[in-house]
């Protein structure tokens, strides 16, 4: 009896040790117009954000894996005007930078469309102190606008991630 229990315990510990931290799954978000691979089952949230004095709904899908949170936020804009898109992109870019006390440094990147083609977006990699405990955080993000949606795909980690984890997330992020 003791040997059987001990064997089961060893087997359970062995299986737990072998279970992957990143269990990638493709999520299609038809309501907000994107597809992405998350490293775990994502949760959903929604809250209003104030952009230029206007309240806009922001939907979030987030998943935690390892030492990181992977998220896609989608802001529904009141119109598809370029000025509205630019204001929302600046709001998201500046907010990510402010969260870690960094300059809002971003460079241009192409964001793929699921049906082929690309849209111009922004890419950021920031590091700095976050929260009341001033803990170091690394932020990786891509921002893009398409129609009445502005997207923020981001990873926030308490230490730098392996490049393959970052690449898996961002290379799978495609807009409809």
From TrEMBL:
<protein>
    <recommendedName>
        <fullName>Lipoprotein</fullName>
    </recommendedName>
</protein>
């Amino acid at each position: 009896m003791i040997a059987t229990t001990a064997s089961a315990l060893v087997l359970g510990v062995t299986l737990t040790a072998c279970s992957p931290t990143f269990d990638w799954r493709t999520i299609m978000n038809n309501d907000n117009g994107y597809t992405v691979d998350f490293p775990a089952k994502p949760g959903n949230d929604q809250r209003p954000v104030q952009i230029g004095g206007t309240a806009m709904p922001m939907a979030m899908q987030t998943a935690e894996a390892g030492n990181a949170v992977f998220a896609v936020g989608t802001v529904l804009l009141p119109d598809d005007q370029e000025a509205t898109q630019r204001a929302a992109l600046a709001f998201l870019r500046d907010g990510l930078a402010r969260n870690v006390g960094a300059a809002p440094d971003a460079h241009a990147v192409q964001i793929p469309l699921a049906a082929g083609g690309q849209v111009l977006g922004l890419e950021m990699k920031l590091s700095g102190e976050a929260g009341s405990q001033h803990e170091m955080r690394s932020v990786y993000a891509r921002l893009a606008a398409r129609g009445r949606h502005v997207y923020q795909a981001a990873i926030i980690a308490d230490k730098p991630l392996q490049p393959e984890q970052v690449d898996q997330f961002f290379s799978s992020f495609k807009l409809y």
